[in-house]
Amino acid sequence: MKKKIYLLATALMFVLAMPSAMAKDENAKPAMTERQIARVEEITSRIEVIKSMDRSELSRQERKDLRNELLEMKKELKASNGGVYLSVGAIIIILLILILIL
């Protein structure tokens, strides 16, 4: 009986991991609204301004603020792409929970 459970768990793991291993279709991205497109353009222009700055004259706190601003913009751009992604750790935890339930 345990062999069947392990076989089922292994098969389930491969089935769940398969879609993430497949190549993504670039045409499958959700369409962005005009507002989102404007925001992306605004962010990219701000990034270009920051890249062209002479950061050697800035204080340590100002450089830190710029770095934090860039990180926040990067997170916002990633969030605008949409989609739900599961990490390998999350898949393993889900499998363990399923094994315990069954």
Q: What does this 3D model show about the protein?
A:
It is a single chain. With 102 residues, the chain is mainly α. The chain has a domain at 34-102. It has helices spanning 2-21, 34-52, 60-81, 88-101. α1 packs antiparallel against α4 (88-101) and α2 (34-52) packs antiparallel against α3. It is elongated. The mean pLDDT is 79.
Could you name the key traits of this structure?
74% helix; transmembrane; membrane; 4 helices; Seryl-tRNA synthetase; transmembrane helix; 102 residues; mainly alpha
Low-pLDDT runs of 5+ residues are none
The helix tally amounts to 4
The strand count comes to 0
Helix and strand composition category? mainly alpha
Q: Averaged pLDDT, please?
A: 79
Give the helix/strand layout:
Layout: H1 2-21, H2 34-52, H3 60-81, H4 88-101
Could you write a compact summary of the structure shown?
This protein is mainly alpha-helical. The protein is built from 4 helices and no strands.
